[in-house]
């Protein structure tokens, strides 16, 4: 369940940050807590 397209939640959060320069409200927290970054 953790694997989504071969990326960990932390990798997905980092990709959200690198694409837009900001972290979206619904992105996972980059600290790895698996909570949404709000």
TrEMBL record:
**Family annotation (InterPro entries):** SEC_C_motif (IPR004027)
Region Disordered, as annotated, extends over 1-26
Renumbered to this chain, the Polar residues biased-composition regions fall at 15-25
| Signal peptide range | none
Entry protein name: Uncharacterized protein
Q: What is the lineage of its organism?
A: Eukaryota, Viridiplantae, Streptophyta, Embryophyta, Tracheophyta
